UniProtKB/TrEMBL annotation:
It comes from Streptomyces purpureus. This is Ribokinase. Pathway: Carbohydrate metabolism; D-ribose degradation; D-ribose 5-phosphate from beta-D-ribopyranose: step 2/2. GO terms for molecular function: ATP binding; metal ion binding; ribokinase activity. GO terms for cellular component: cytosol. It is found in: Cytoplasm. The gene is rbsK. Requires a divalent cation, most likely magnesium in vivo, as an electrophilic catalyst to aid phosphoryl group transfer. It is the chelate of the metal and the nucleotide that is the actual substrate. Keywords: ATP-binding, Carbohydrate metabolism, Cytoplasm, Kinase, Magnesium, Metal-binding, Nucleotide-binding, Potassium, Transferase. InterPro entries: Carboh/pur_kinase_PfkB_CS (IPR002173), PfkB_dom (IPR011611), Ribo/fructo_kinase (IPR002139), Ribokinase (IPR011877), Ribokinase-like (IPR029056).
């Protein structure tokens, strides 16, 4: 099983021809509310990829909180340990323009109320094959989660997004770090992915850097780096491609698949998701990933 310690956000998405400048008002075309948050997205991706998944985090006491919890329940994610914190849920205010560019404001809301782990959380983590972490909860609790998993012998997989400096104690408790190339560059100060991977291996034992349509790069202290190409597809919406990739990767690794095969399978999952609009709604089911992998 997989445990996600992470965020839930309601994505409030405005589609406009052109984003407004400061002080300007523009008329948009469409508005959508979509359940999201990196934590919840990874949980849904892993559940659809076939794992038993539990989510630790918090939704608010507003209407969004009800919908965010229901979305996870509907995806088959266990929400028994998902808290409901007094006040608003996390929200992401997203403006998408006609060129597919976006500008985003995230307000953590209830996510900020996840400040410590309970005994129940620890027991759940201790029974898992992997703990998935991102940086949309307070860094103190992300660090506590990673350290708890490490102590209990559970693999920790950290997506260092949104990019920010990592506490050394968090890095020290991370088994597999999965940045995209921008996050890798932000963490290391070098833009070449191979050089960034080498720098990151000084502090974590295994790294996967995702490279968008160019695939991904895996590096460990044991063997030379390997690149896995992404299936060539027509992307219509790359939102949450990275979360889909990590969710599927965790499932494959949790089942004991060797790294190259696990990466290829995760790449197929992510490629399926970018061909369909939406974030969690676009994530593929295990049968689809298997079918595409074997074709
Ligand atoms: P993020 O979504 O976090 O920015 P990336 O853009 O690197 O991360 O995408 C994560 C993974 O999703 C990539 O490693 C790749 O496997 C897959 N992916 C992303 N964009 C495409 C694309 N246009 N075509 C095929 N696969 C893609």
């Amino acid at each position: 099983s997989i445990v996600v310690l992470g965020s839930t956000n309601m994505d409030l998405v405005a589609y406009v021809a052109r984003a407004p400048a400061r002080g300007e008002t523009v008329t948009g075309r469409e508005f959508r509310t979509v359940p999201g948050g990196k934590g919840a997205n990874q949980a849904v991706a892993a559940a659809r990829a076939g794992a038993e998944v539990s989510m630790i985090g918090a939704v608010g006491t507003d209407d969004f909180g009800v919908r965010l919890r229901a979305a996870l329940d509907g995806a088959g994610v266990d929400t028994d340990l998902l808290r409901t914190a007094e006040g608003p849920s996390g929200t992401a205010h997203i403006v998408v323009d006609d060129e597919g560019g976006n500008a985003i404001v995230v307000i953590p809301g209830a996510n900020g109320a996840v400040t410590a782990l309970t005994h129940g959380d620890e027991a759940l983590i201790g029974n898992a094959d992997a703990l998935l972490l991102q940086l949309e909860l307070p860094l103190s609790v992300v660090t506590e989660g990673a350290r708890t998993a490490r102590r209990l012998g559970v693999r920790t997989i950290l997506t260092p997004a949104p990019a920010k400096p990592l506490p050394p104690e968090l890095v020290a408790a991370t088994d597999l770090l999965v940045p995209n190339e921008h996050e890798a560059a932000a963490l290391t100060g070098v833009t070449d992915p191979y050089a960034a991977a080498e720098a990151l291996l000084r502090v974590v034992p295994e790294v996967v850097i995702t490279l968008g349509a160019r695939g991904s790069l895996y590096a460990s202290r044991e063997a030379p780096p390997v690149t896995v190409s992404a299936p060539r597809v027509t992307a219509v919406d790359t939102t949450a491609a990275g979360d889909t990739f990590v969710g599927a990767l965790a499932v494959a690794l949790g089942e004991g698949r060797p790294v190259p095969g696990a990466l290829a399978w995760a790449s197929v999952a992510a490629a399926l998701s970018v061909q369909r609009p939406g974030a969690s709604t676009s994530m593929p089911y295990r049968s689809e990933i298997d079918m595409e992998t074997n074709s």
